[in-house]
Amino acid sequence: MNPKIFCLILNYRHHQDTLSCVRHLEDADLPRDSQIIILDNTEDNSSYQALKKALPKHKIIKNKANLGFAAGNNVGVRHALKNKATHVLIINPDVKVPERFFAPFLKHFKTNPRLGLVGPALKHKVKNKTYYGLDGYMDWDFAKPQHHSIARVPSKKPIRAQFLTFACVLINAELLKQNLLDERYFMYLEDVDFGLTAKKLGYELILDSSVIATHQTSASFSHPRHKLKISYKSHIKFIFKWLIFPHNLIAASYQSLHYPYLYFLWTYHHWRYRPTSTK
């Protein structure tokens, strides 16, 4: 069977990022019969109208509200499965893929029938320094997801992962038929949850560091502090889904202290290092 990939881009207000993402996917080695689907989570019609005008050849689905990451993407996943997708790409609007992108991933799927997910190394900048985000692993003592991130170009050897970031990941449609994204997470931890569930179902996950995509990390939040409340709620749901007593209470207690600490730390850095205006 020829591959039929549905590329899902969840847009929330930043339609210019979405347009850039679409252009890069169009320039990549996307197989014939594949489709690019934009899922608009924006509350009003501003982004939808702009995207509809700029992308008349692509399907744009206007969600009824801001459904969050998991539920918003599941709208596209269900559409993809209904239309006989073999694979589904979930990609953030602020990610740009290289021209040679799909072929290496599809090769992995062809040689490994139990492969559930494959993702690229994500090149990004932190304080003008370049890093490459790789796979993730769990510190189960406190239910802390950890991400490998390195400052040099990664080796080209595939990495078997516990979970992959859903900023950019290609998923086997057979896995999605068994398991959609858990909609109890409005945002954050859904990718960790999905990866762990995939492994529980007997699928493998691979980070192919020979493929490097660029992640601009344009935020839906004006400041990182604003995402902490949503992240905390997701984290507590994750803990009580994956851990049993008494480990769930230990992890939940730790995170209930850790998140306020992060809030005050980030608040301090925000005010301490904020730009000062000069006349």
What do you see in this structure?
By secondary structure, the chain is of the alpha/beta class. The protein has helices at residues 15-27, 46-54, 69-82, 102-111, 173-178, 190-200, 228-242, 247-272; strands spanning 5-11, 35-40, 59-62, 87-91, 95-96, 115-126, 129-139, 144-150, 159-160, 168-172, 204-215. The protein folds into two domains: 5-215, Spore Coat Polysaccharide Biosynthesis Protein SpsA, Chain A (Alpha-Beta Complex); 224-272. It is built from eight helices and eleven strands. The longest helix is centred in the C-terminal third of the chain and has 26 residues, at 247-272. The radius of gyration is 19 Å and the shape is globular.
List the keywords:
279 residues, alpha/beta, Spore Coat Polysaccharide Biosynthesis Protein SpsA, Chain A, 2 domains, 11-stranded mixed beta sheet, 8 helices, 11 strands, globular
How would you characterize the largest beta sheet? 11 strands, mixed
Q: How many β-strands, per DSSP?
A: 11
- What is the CATH topology descriptor of the largest domain? Spore Coat Polysaccharide Biosynthesis Protein SpsA, Chain A
Q: How many helix segments?
A: 8
Secondary structure category: alpha/beta
Question: What is the highest CATH level, the class of the largest domain?
Answer: Alpha Beta
Sum up the overall morphology in one term.
globular
Mean pLDDT: 93
Helix content: 25-40%
Q: Which range does the strand content fall in? A: 25-35%
- Distance N to C terminus: 65 Å
Order of helices and strands: EHEHEHEEHEEEEEHHEHH
Task: Pick out the low-confidence regions.
Answer: none
Task: Give Rg in angstroms.
Answer: 19 Å
Do you know the CATH architecture of the largest domain? Answer: Alpha-Beta Complex
**Total domains, how many?**
2
